[in-house]
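Box S1 | Example of a co-folding query
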Amino acid sequence: MGVIVKKVELSWLDRSYVWPIAQGMLITFRHFLKQIATPTSKRFTIQYPDMKKTLPAGYRGLHELKRFEDGAIKCVACFMCQEACPARCISIEAEEFSELNFTQGFEEKRPAAFKIDMLRCIYCGMCEEACPKDAIWLRNEYELAAYDRVSMNFGKWDLINTYAEADGKARLTQGQESPATPSRPASGQSGQPSDPA
Amino acid sequence: MESVAHLTGLSAVTIWTLLKVLIVFSAVMGIGSLWTWVERRGSAMLQDRIGPNRALLFGRWQLLGLPQLVADGIKFFFKEDQVPPHVTKSLFWLAPVLAFVPALIGFAIIPFGRSFTYQGMPYHLSVLEPGNGMGMLFPLAIGAVAVYGILVAAWSSNNKWAILGGMRASAQMVSYEIALGLAVLAIFMRVGGYDPSEIIKDQMAGGWYFWRQPLGFLVFFTCMFAESNRLPFDFAEGEAEIVGFHNEYGSMKFALIALSEYAHMISASGLITTLYLGGWSVPFMPEAPVLLTILSFLVKLLFLLWVFVWVRWTLPRFRYDQLMFLGWKVLLPLSMVNLIWNAWWMTRGGI
Ligand code: SF4
Ligand code: SF4
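Box S1 (continued) | Returned holo structure for iron/sulfur cluster
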């Protein structure tokens, strides 16, 4: 397929270089004057560790596994997200569950292990779309870095506690109900390698 | 002056010369290193960025990013001085000096203030006294020598990309030399001499050459950018994008090469000031006091240095064929036109 390249006819003034260069220099100089009058904090540059970008509400960052009011996990281990994931980075193990004192009790199934390999995840949000229970959300958290691959393998208890702002529910750890201590606190410090449960 | 001369047993002339050498070279070095800061800070301002501000003095004072200079110095001194095993050692060590010294001594001829007489002795404010017979030919010759620094650095690196970079840079510098020479020739012709003090006196009488030979100014100005390897002609050292001749250099040797670019820039600005902006002369004040003339020179010099920075952060780099086209097919004819037009004008009795 041929592409039509538009040829721009330059006037002799433009081809002389001198006038366009003068114009360009005027533009940059205007920026210079404007920047002098602008305090550092108001400039375009975001000085990352000190200032953070406010991301739009729809940003797809770190995942969170949602919980009910009583703390029970919303996920029913239906494997929909695992199937939907184009990067094949979710792996779920289901377990039977029949204690009726939890909201989830009616569901009779919950994930025994829920792993997401954050290094393979492409943050497409497919899992979020696929979930019939609204159990998996992608949050605003974007500071995802670690010193090794193992710590980027997020387990169930990591994912339960990744909420960007605390939703009032107690942080869940393995010690309280059953499984592990989340290795990665919501404040974003890099943690030790997590328990892959 | 006399008493110092008496104490040290040197003649007053010698001491004055030594003093001048000291002042001029430390000023060039000082302004050069200061300009690395101006460059960064100015570029940030021109392009809506922030610029260096993380280095703090004693962990407290930001001082507009100036501590960055100190940090740079410390970094350059303490960095491991890597010499790759495949280089030609002696030339490799010599090259930064070869690049730096011509850039530095190019400034020697440029008068930075009015000559004055003190206690019956004339004092001239330039390292080389006026009437030494070299005049403005000296910086032009030195400018040509600067190519050696680049070539030696490129060759001794024993690395094909460095050699290509060196070839690029030296071809550029040599190409622009001719247009440059012809542009300056038009001034020599008008003045009837090539001593900087004569050129300045001529400009004080007849107006700056900036107005009298705008075409020549344009050619000279452009060539100076190419000569000092500044953007938009920085084929010698595109730090991040193209492999330059100083590819193998690190730590203090690299700093010397980088600083020589700034020294070059200062010499170039000094030359432009002297040739086209009336040197140290103060407009409308033929008998200005000495300090005022030095101030006038400094203002012009610093303004031109700022223009160098300003242009760098406005224009993108030329492509290599465009550069050669501009040098040979545009600037060279233009500078010939300028020369011939001036010659014709002089035959008609014009000044
Ligand atoms: S965001 Fe996309 S890639 Fe990441 S876990 Fe969900 S479905 Fe998989
Ligand atoms: S789709 Fe939702 S409910 Fe189903 S396994 Fe995934 S997170 Fe759990």
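The interface with chain A takes residues 42, 44-50, 53, 218, 310-311, 313-315 of chain B (CB under 8 Å). The pocket of iron/sulfur cluster (ligand 1) is lined by residues A 84-87, 89-90, 116, 121-127 (CB under 6 Å).
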